[in-house]
Amino acid sequence: MAGQRVIAAVPRGTLMGKSLDLLEGIGYDVAEVRENDRKLFFDKQGIITMRPSDVATYVERGVADIGIVGKDVLMEQSDRDLYEVLDLDFGACRMIVAVVEGNEHASEEQLRRRGTLRVATKYPKIAQKHFGQTGRQVELVEVKGSVELAAIAGMADAIVDLTATGITLRENGLVVTEEIVDCTARLIVNPGAYRLKSEEIDRVVAELSALVSSNSGG
Amino acid sequence: MSSEESTRLGGASVPETIPVPMGTRDVLPEEMAELREISGRALKVFTQAGYGEIATPALEYEETMRLAGTDFAENVYRVPDKDGQVLTLRFDSTVPIARLAATRYRAAEPPLRFCYMQHVYRAIEPKRAESRQFLQIGMELLGLPAQAGDAEAVELLVSVLRESGLTDFKIAVGDVNFFAERLATAGITGAEKERVVHEMHTRDLVGYRRELAATSVGKADLESLERLAIARGGRELLEAEGAEQLIKLDSLLAEAGVADNVIYDLGLVRPLSYYTGTVLEVFSPSSGFPLGGGGRYDNLVGRFGRELAAFGFSLNLERLHLAVLAEQEAGA
Question: From the CA of A156, how many Å to the nearest CA of chain B?
């Protein structure tokens, strides 16, 4: 069974550059993937690219054997049958609760008076779990685009979102009131490939693991 | 489809459709004939091995599931009955067959061998083409303990897969006890154990290593448990790790000539809590999803009134069919 190809799912967007660096570091030919912005399927190179929230879907269905994906996506899609094998130690960001600056107490008051908070997010599962675990009821409003707007425009008392630098939040006049979890990029594996290509998968995991530790060491 | 769209697609020849619930579908003659063909061959393997085909009601009392101690209750379809009792739509076949065997076959000489082909229902919200109704074919072997029972089941599984026309497949085999024992030996118990096992259940190896590191186990145990979670291989792996029960099973499988179809996976755990020993999952390169799974459940039948060691597996017939077709296409 040795020598089977391991097809990799790579997220487009902020995680893409570093993901390709890592794959290049273990022998994938990524030159064309870097150059070609529109092509999605790189058969010869064994790489497919997609929006980050779709990576888990393609890997779960076995179209790709492995994938690189943010922990935020994995937490939001926690019902998927996937192996999460490695913390790739890049793409660090935080899942946070934020409110409009100056409204920190207003939302507490809202919770006291109405008994519930209105929260906008792209991550309803994570938000529901966080507020549930901290004993607060919330009404979730799921949005697809810039979540900050929901708070600024007054549609929600608070937002749950992912932030790397906090710049967008600050520029929109929001302040972080709670930290939910730290997220980094993870390596995921399809359960079938995990058994059917176990040697190749183990080799990829070992090489990526070595690469990640040498990167963080240097 | 709107009438405007149907016009664009060629007018009156495209009929308006009346939808079926998401996650369900019609089966048309061509596919149905092929499903009959595959299931017929599989059932023949079962019956020739002495397994009697049975069917259980699509509706069971929720109380039956409660007796079984099933912990997966959130995905069960429930309907209130007129008398106030709650009915559930068949979630799997193992629990109803455990009920049937413990009650109707209370005095029958073991082992008992049953096979079945019936639909099961899952109350999920299908977003990724999952089915809410799917056809399972499978077996339950009651009253034949490990490893003889495990070996008979694996052997039968290999025969069924081969007879259905599938050539390339692997059965991942693990042992839920072995993993638990190793944790206990390392001194991981109670809440710590639950946290570690939870990470294994969710297949989060990053979380598993994090939870292990948070325990007070020494470096040697830590490394050996980290290795164990991802340990996959053949006989040599079992010997290196001292997995005695699986070594016994492997010897039986080697005698039966099916050891090559198995890959041992010492980190394999199955989400259902009733498994007590050997567990397995079936994989094919022609399918992104497992084709089926099963395992040993020695305490379940006893909950219905008769202590019987048991082993069962089920295959998703539609997935198996698609995998066979994909192999044929790739080979053609």
Answer: 26
Residues β-bridged to residue A182: A94
Distances (CA, A) of A177 to A97, A102, A105, B104, B305: 6, 11, 10, 61, 55
**Interface touch B230/A61, C-beta < 8 Å:** no
Q: Which domain holds residue A178?
A: 93-182
Are residues A59 and A22 part of one domain? yes
Q: Which of B128, B205, B283 sits opposite A192 (nearest CB)?
A: B283
Would you give per-residue pLDDT tens digits along chain A (218 residues)?
347 899 999 999 999 999 999 999 999 999 999 999 889 999 999 999 999 999 999 999 999 999 999 999 999 998 889 999 999 999 999 999 999 999 888 777 777 887 889 999 999 999 999 999 998 899 999 999 899 999 999 999 999 999 999 999 999 999 999 999 999 999 999 999 999 999 999 999 999 999 999 987 65
Nearest to B172 among A81, A86, A195 (CB): A195
ipTM: 0.85
pTM: 0.88
Q: What is d(CA A184, CA A68) in angstroms, rounded to the nearest whole number?
A: 10
Collapsed DSSP state (helix, strand, coil) of residue A30 = coil
Instruction: Sort out which chain B residues have CB atoms less than 8 A from A69's CB and list them.
Output: none
H or E element in which residue B10 lies: none
Q: What is the number of structural domains in chain A?
A: 2
Q: Span B31-58+89-169+284-332: which CATH code?
A: 3.30.930.10
Same domain, A99 and A166: yes
